[in-house]
């Protein structure tokens, strides 16, 4: 046995790996809003400037058709993670869990020694002691500072940091923003300090959804009854409390009934009962049992595995099964659609409406005339810098050069984020259609473009719009043949 004990190597605890994950998530969430490429953020939904930044590309609010695809990717990603790895999102990614670990494990336990050790999450500190009361107040003060930073960080995905700190100089003009940050901070103080894991157990709807998504191959923290012995019956009534009672029922049972897996659980469950909605897959129980059983030279009785492999003992867990592959295909497909739609964004927005008057006619002589059609162009520059814009008309085949733009006569400047209204007039002096009975609607294409710094048309900021040019009938035109 002693030789066997030497061969048992206790792996790096899952808790430490989770801490690394939390550190990465925290750094990324704090740093990402500050990163700009070409003046654009990775993600910014600005209601202030009516802009959406996605993957360092700027979109106008009129292009918010991309948001449903982002939400689909988010929910399908979480559901896919659940099918594959249980509530791994809750234990490894969810902000609620990250904040609770920072407050409970870092501030209260490591920094202030309010809790004796991280391994016991069931026993609350004795708050009758004045020393512990002082430590609790200090913990709340530290957490208040941190949640104010967290609230500001959350706002940076809606108001960029460069504007956020500018607005702080005039707080009276931006009370909604400040109120939102304070509101988030108050919620996180109540949630993390007082509500605790009850949020995961009673408030979060995700725990109710997970049971529908699970199957026998879903990976979760699971107790091996075959090796450890049966602690609970089917109604979850406890059968034994001591190892000698357990071994009286099953002599080969390996569970020591030390309850380390119970005392370490942040949601206060006993993993030996089986699948429970409260389990967030933090794997603290796996670490606890691994340490205890490792000292006995045995592998852990609680592992991150599936019912198919541990409970039913039918074989190895199948990770790539039809349900998981379906989620992967959906995620890849939606990502491709989102990427394609994002890559085809227009770098200027243009709406064209014809004026109520169909046309205007002027005669220079009996056979000389001008026919004007006027339009209202509503244009918006979606770039980050002022640019000059201009238009040209493309008539149908056979009418090239016969319809020209007369107003505006030269390029005009448009600043970012402001809708520019322009009256645009197209003119012809040619007999385009000789129809004695009715006006003729001629399809035309309008080319709108920006000018580069060298004055040449931009290939990037260039769009086409379809419209019509109305040419009057012969009786109204009044031309003698």
- N/C terminus separation: 117 Å
The shape, in one word, is elongated
Please estimate the helix content: 25-40%
Q: Which stretches are poorly predicted, pLDDT < 50 over at least 5 residues?
A: 1-6
| Count of beta strands | 16
Number of domains: 2
What would you report as the Rg, rounded to the nearest angstrom? Answer: 34 Å
Category from helices, strands and their pairing = alpha+beta
Largest sheet: 5 strands, antiparallel
Strand percentage = 15-25%
Instruction: Give the oligomer, counting copies of the same chain as homo and different chains as hetero.
Output: single chain
Mean pLDDT: 88
Supply the number of helical segments.
Answer: 16
Provide structural commentary.
The protein is an alpha+beta fold. It folds into 2 domains: 1-34 and 86-314, no CATH class; 348-472, Immunoglobulins (Immunoglobulin-like), CATH 2.60.40.10. The chain contains 16 helices and 16 strands. The strands form 5 sheets. Strands 8, 9, 10, 12 and 14 form a 5-stranded antiparallel β-sheet that branches. A 4-stranded antiparallel β-sheet has the order 13-11-15-16, with no helix packed on it. Strands 3-4-5 form a 3-stranded antiparallel β-sheet, with no helix packed on it. Strand 3 and strand 4 form a beta hairpin. Helix 3 packs antiparallel against helix 15 and helix 6 (130-155) packs across helix 8. The model is unreliable at 1-6 (pLDDT under 50).
């Amino acid at each position: 046995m002693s030789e066997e004990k030497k061969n048992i190597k206790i792996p790096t605890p899952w808790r430490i790996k989770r801490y690394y994950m939390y550190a990465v998530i925290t750094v990324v969430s704090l740093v990402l809003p500050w990163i700009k490429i070409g003046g654009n953020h990775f993600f910014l939904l600005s209601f202030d400037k009516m802009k959406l930044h996605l993957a360092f590309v700027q979109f106008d609010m009129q292009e918010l058709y991309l948001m449903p695809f982002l939400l689909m990717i988010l929910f399908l990603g979480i559901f896919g993670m659940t099918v594959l790895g249980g509530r791994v999102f809750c234990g490894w990614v969810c902000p609620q869990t990250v904040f609770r670990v920072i407050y409970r494990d870092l501030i209260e336990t490591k920094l202030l020694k309010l809790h004796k050790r991280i391994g016991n999450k069931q026993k609350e500190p004795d708050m009758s002691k004045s020393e512990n009361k002082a430590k609790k107040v200090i913990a709340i003060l530290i957490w208040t500072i941190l949640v104010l930073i967290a609230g500001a960080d959350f706002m940076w995905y809606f108001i960029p940091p460069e504007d956020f700190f500018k607005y702080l100089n005039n707080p009276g003009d931006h009370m909604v923003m400040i109120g939102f940050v304070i509101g988030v901070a108050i919620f996180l103080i109540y949630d993390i300090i007082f509500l605790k894991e009850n949020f995961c157990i009673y408030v979060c709807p995700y725990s109710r959804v997970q049971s529908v998504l699970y199957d026998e191959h879903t990976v979760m923290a699971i107790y091996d009854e075959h090796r450890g012995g049966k602690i609970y019956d089917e109604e979850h009534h406890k059968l034994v409390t001591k190892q000698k009672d357990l071994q009286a029922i099953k002599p080969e049972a390996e569970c020591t009934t030390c309850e380390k897996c119970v005392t370490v659980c942040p949601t206060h469950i006993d993993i030996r009962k089986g699948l429970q909605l409260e389990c967030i897959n933090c794997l603290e129980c796996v670490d606890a049992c691994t340490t205890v059983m490792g000292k006995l030279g045995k592998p852990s009785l609680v592992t991150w595995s599936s019912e198919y492999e541990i409970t039913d003992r039918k074989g190895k867990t199948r990770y790539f099964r039809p349900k998981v592959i379906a989620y992967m295909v959906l995620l890849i497909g939606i990502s491709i659609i989102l990427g394609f739609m994002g890559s085809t964004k227009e770098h200027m927005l243009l709406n064209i409406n014809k004026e109520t008057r169909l046309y205007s006619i002027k005669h220079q002589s009996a056979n000389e005339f001008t026919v004007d059609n006027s339009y209202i162009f509503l244009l918006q520059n979606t770039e980050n810098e002022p640019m000059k814009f201009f238009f040209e008309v493309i008539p149908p085949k056979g009418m090239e050069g016969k319809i020209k733009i007369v107003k505006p006569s030269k390029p005009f400047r448009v600043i970012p984020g402001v809708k520019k209204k322009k009256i645009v007039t197209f003119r012809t002096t040619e007999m385009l259609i000789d129809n004695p009975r009715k006006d003729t609607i001629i399809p035309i294409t309008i080319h709108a473009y920006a000018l580069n710094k060298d004055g040449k048309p931009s290939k990037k900021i260039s769009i086409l719009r379809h419209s019509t040019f109305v040419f009057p009938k012969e009786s109204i035109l009044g031309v003698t043949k």
